[in-house]
Structures are given as C-alpha cells and as structure tokens.
C-alpha cells in the first residue's frame, strides 16, 4: 500500500468515535430505544456542525408502529456547488446484541484499544465504517479540490433487524406530514455510497457487485399446558424440544441443500465473468478453516465454497430455546420450543414467495401433538446485483488503486444490507458499496473489533471518492 494513508485516525476523530460506540444501540431491543434516540441525536449534532440540514424522522404511528416505538431515521442534506453531482450516503447506527456476555474479554460497550484495534460492539458494524467515512468526508469539505457534491445522508437504527421503519418511510407517504423529507424527490441522487462491507484478504480493496437478500423469522411450537415430569409423563406427552429438532432438521437434505419445495425454483446461476471475478478473490477452503476454526462444510457440500458463500441461498438456524439449560439436571418434558431462523436469498428469488414456501413446509412437517406458530417475519429484502460495467465502478477502481497499488477486486457478498436495493431504486442512484471489514473483526460475535488501519482506510476512501466524484 502507498504511504499516503495514515495508520491511525487523529486523536479528535478517535475521541468522537469512542463517544459514538458507547451508545448501546441494539435497535431490535425496545429497552434500548432511549440509547438509539440519543445516538441519533448525537449524529444529528455532528452533521449540523459540517453544515447539513438534519431531521430525525419516524414513520406514521399506525399499524405495526402504533404502540411500539422504533429508532429514528437520521435524514440530512448539505447543499453542494451548482452542477456538481449528488451523493447519497447510507449507514446504520444500530448494533447486534452483545450476547453471550461472558464471552467478551472487554466490556462490550466500553471501547478498548489493544494492539492497534478497538474492541467494542459496533466498532466495525457499522459505527466504525460509518464514522470513518464521515471523518474522511469532513476532511474533504475542509479542503475541497474542485466542486463539492450535494451530500445526502440516511442513517437508520434497524438494519440488524430488517430496516422496518426506513422501509416504510421509503414506500409510504406520510399523509399527516406532507413535509416529510423522506420522499423520492428528496432522496434523488447520482451515487449511493455504502461503507458497510468488507475488503478482500489482507485489506485489498473490494467493490461489492452483489448482496444476498434476507428474511428473518421465528418458529414456535407448543404442546402440553406446562412442562411435565419426565418420569410420570415420559412416553406419553409429546416433547417440544424433540419436536423442534425434527422440524428444523427437515429443512435440509443430507447434502446440506435446502429441502423446502419451491424454495430453489427461481435460483439462477452466476454469469461466467461474475464467477471468475469472485473466484479471483475468494479465500481457499484451508484459509477459511483457519479463520472460522472448523472445516467449512456448511450448506451444499457438493458445491465449491465461492458458490455457496456468494451465489446460493441458505437457510440458517440462528438459535434454539427449549426446556432446561441450567446446572445439573431437571427432568422435564418441555411444553414449548422456539427457534430463530434467517434465510439468505439470491437474485430472482422473491422474498415473499420464498417465505410462503417455507411456511407451507413447516406446516406440513409439524410433529404430531404440536401447535405451530410462524412469527416476527422481518427483512423480506431481495438480493442486489450490479453490472460489472457500471461507470461508477470504473471510477471507484481508479480511486482504490491510488489507495492500494494492488488495485480493487470484485466481491459478491454473502451477507445482506436489507434496504439498499430499495434505497437505490427510490433514489435512482448508482450503488457503490466499498468497505474495509475483515473476517477477523468478529462482527455479530463477542469481541468485535476494528483496527485503526481499517478506520484510516475508510476515511481516506471517503476523502478520495468524494473528490473524484
């Protein structure tokens, strides 16, 4: 890499970064709504200091939003020079829950610097990437080299749980608030910048040309009217823990492929040039095994890793809860069980069609004696696929080569940013997804971290791409 990019942010940038990290913004937890509002207010004040007009926005309090508060969406705009392009910048200030707490080596919401890395929930996803981009943007505004673009900002507090509030704001007009800024005309832009993705191995820059879609949901089984004595009722009462195990096992075939009828019907193969580009930067099976600590044998085991991780849909069990899990033993037959699941979708798959197929499968495979409930369906976001010939990709490649003489690679990210495809459609902007995450950052896991080098690269990228635009 060249010597122009500093190895660490300035002390003032780092101080603000730590302030941002201390907000416990678990957007999916209603008990953390106050933290989310305080964090959104902090971002509002920060953006106002760079000259932006900022508003915190909520959807109308009707339907799903009638009684339950949700984190506000931060919408801001800073006018640029006449004739300059408009850049829309998206990010999210919510974070994953810190569980399991006992696996953290440092307090999860107390940023701790160690060996050039900042350990804290959200240090990378997405507060670290979001704020590193803002710091570079501020440097650009302080010393612009040419016309300054009009800058629009959308920061939400529900990305980790499906982007419900922002999705509603993007798809419904607020009848009682005709001045609401989240209308198509107010979001119109030329380029949509997202800094919430990863770089390739050894921090080689990567441009994301595709994201998988996502839907999350909860499956609940109920049997007896209470937990029962396993001696008195063993062999008589149906066991909810056993039932949920059987039901979840039915979702996959022995080779790891999804067994739900109709789920795979619309899956299409990647183009040859897409597959070749993905393979050029994909880690080997051996490197992946070292990274995750076990053989990479999940999913469709007959297919190569790069296909499974980027171009094929998945059905994952995120958590299962039933019966007793404390010390010693408690001889009961559990009366209820709950599982959290998520599915990643690929281009051509319709989220609602896929979810309907899953619900049919669950109902037809529900074990006897059990009542089935499918609840909390969120996300329902389609996959995003971008053409490799995009003009903004050529510009980004040139800028990234200035940051790193190895140049940029293309990636098809197995993860999802649920609202990006909708945001791109509403704004009319060309999406540009460049981030500096690494697998070692442990996002969604205990001991999440982000290196000072990664933060500095995110800032340098923002400063250079805004200048180039």
What's the N-to-C terminus distance?
A: 23 Å
| Helicity range | 25-40%
Structural class: alpha+beta
For the record, the CATH class of the largest domain is Alpha Beta
Unreliable stretches:
none
Bin the strand percentage. Answer: 15-25%
Main β-sheet description: 9 strands, mixed
CATH topology of the largest domain: Aminopeptidase
Number of spatially distinct domains: 2
| Structure summary, number of beta strands | 18
Shape: globular
The CATH fourth-level homologous superfamily of the largest domain: Zn peptidases
Radius of gyration: 23 Å
Q: What is the average per-residue confidence, as pLDDT, rounded to a whole number?
A: 93
Number of helical regions: 13
**Second CATH tier, the architecture of the largest domain:** 3-Layer(aba) Sandwich
């Amino acid at each position: 890499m060249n010597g122009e990019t500093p190895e660490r942010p300035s002390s003032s940038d780092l101080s603000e970064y730590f302030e941002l990290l201390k907000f416990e913004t678990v957007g999916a937890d209603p008990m953390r709504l106050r933290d989310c509002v305080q964090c959104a207010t902090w971002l509002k004040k920060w953006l106002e200091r760079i000259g932006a007009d900022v508003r915190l926005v909520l959807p109308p309090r009707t339907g799903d939003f009638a009684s339950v508060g949700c984190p506000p969406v931060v919408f801001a705009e800073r006018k640029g020079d006449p004739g300059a392009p408009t850049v829309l910048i998206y990010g999210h200030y919510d974070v994953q829950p810190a569980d399991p707490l006992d696996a953290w080596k440092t307090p999860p919401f107390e940023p701790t610097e160690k060996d050039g890395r900042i350990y804290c929930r959200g240090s990378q996803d997405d507060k670290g990437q979001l704020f590193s981009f803002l710091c570079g943007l501020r440097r650009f505004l302080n010393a612009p080299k040419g016309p300054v673009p009009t800058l629009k900002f959308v920061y939400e507090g529900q990305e980790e749980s499906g982007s419900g509030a922002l999705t509603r704001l993007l798809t419904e007009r607020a009848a009682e608030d005709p001045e609401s800024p989240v209308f198509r005309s107010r979001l119109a832009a030329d380029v949509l910048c997202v800094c919430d993705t990863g770089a390739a191995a050894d921090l080689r820059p990567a441009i994301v040309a595709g994201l998988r879609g996502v839907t999350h949901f909860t499956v609940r089984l109920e049997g007896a009217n209470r937990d029962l004595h396993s001696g008195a009722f063993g062999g008589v009462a149906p066991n909810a823990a056993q039932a949920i195990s059987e039901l979840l096992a039915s979702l996959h075939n022995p080779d790891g492929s999804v067994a739900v009828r109709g789920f795979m019907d619309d899956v299409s193969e990647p183009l040859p040039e897409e597959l070749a580009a993905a393979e050029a930067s994909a880690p080997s099976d051996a490197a992946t095994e070292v990274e995750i600590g076990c053989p990479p044998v999940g999913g469709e085991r007959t297919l190569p890793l790069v296909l499974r991780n980027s171009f094929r849909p998945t059905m994952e069990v995120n958590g299962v809860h039933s019966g007793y899990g404390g010390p010693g033993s408690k001889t009961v037959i559990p009366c209820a069980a709950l599982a959290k699941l998520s599915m990643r979708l690929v281009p051509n798959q319709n989220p609602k069609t896929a979810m309907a197929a899953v619900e049919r499968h669950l109902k037809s495979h529900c074990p006897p004696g059990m009542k089935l409930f499918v609840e909390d369906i969120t996300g329902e976001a389609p996959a995003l696929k971008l053409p490799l010939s995009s003009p903004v990709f050529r510009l980004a490649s040139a800028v990234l080569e200035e940051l790193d003489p190895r140049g940029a690679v293309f990636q098809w990210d197995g993860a999802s940013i649920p609202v990006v495809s909708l945001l791109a459609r509403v704004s009319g902007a060309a999406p540009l997804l460049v981030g500096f995450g690494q697998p070692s950052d442990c996002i969604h896991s205990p001991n999440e971290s982000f290196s000072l080098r990664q933060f500095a690269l995110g800032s340098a990228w923002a400063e250079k791409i805004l200048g180039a635009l």
